[in-house]
Amino acid sequence: MTIPLAFSHDQFLRDIESTADAIGAAYSESVTRTVLDTYPDSFRDGAVLWRTTDTPGGPLNYRFYARRRTDSVGTAIRAGLLEPGHPLIDLIASWSALYGDVSTELCDFDAAHGLAKTWVYLGGMRPVDRVLGASHVPQGLRLHEPRLRALGLTAVRHVAVDYHGGTANLYFRTSSKITPDRAEELIALVGGKLPEPALLDDMVTFTPPRRTHLLGDHERARRPDPSRRVLRPQTACRPVPHHRRTLDHLLSIRSFQRRRGDERHRLVLRARRQRLRQSRTQLHRAPGRAHEDLEQPHDGRERISTRG
Predict the structure, then answer these.
(1) Which of 89, 226, 249, 306 is most buried, judged by most C-beta within 10 A?
(2) Are 169 and 133 in contact (CB under 8 A)?
(3) CB environment 204-213: b (16+ within 10 A), e (fewer)
């Protein structure tokens, strides 16, 4: 079965209506059509994501994730999706302008009410003092900087404003392993309660600590060019966990396919397969099992390694 990758307005409208009906969320077809008509390029070229909660009757949200310079706020005002006098507009505009053309704007939408949140991707990891020092950041938020630093929250990747909730959000890189004590310290920032053990286990699994490289004012995060990647033999005894297939990786593949075109993509894959066949690299299976040729992958996966 072939599944088209191109974004379809009609398919999206069918999907969002059936999803809202399934989870009991509010939905407006007219509002959704206005959103799709207002940001056609972003939905066509970006990744489209869904969001909801386990709260009965909670909202159904969707967003586009396209790393291109877009005046999403001005576009929303002209389309009637955002009141021009909203108090959070100046704040998100100051964050969007903080790093010039390096920053990109993204949007969250409510299935019933339209624009819900504006995000700004800052082009990489940025120092928290620089982010809190932007114009129109409330003084009350700036006063939290010493406490954020004490908790190791020094690198900001995204910022956002929630028009419905009336809040501003900062998104930090996980700097140390999540533990019950660590989670309690972080949640205390907003007066929350420690999550249940199952949820805490998910936090530990899906938010491993990562190294942070802070960028300069005019520096953009470097992303690898998929067309220049080198496939190296490696030992693989199990599939890569789903949560490790990061959004950045998926977006880089999609961007590569879009830039080079399907034919170019097929040629690159064909050349890679030929190089793999020419090498004498073989599958590595569990200890005690025989090696197999690359042309006979185990469980349909090309798990390869060199013989030691």
Answers:
(1) 89
(2) no
(3) eeeeeeeeee
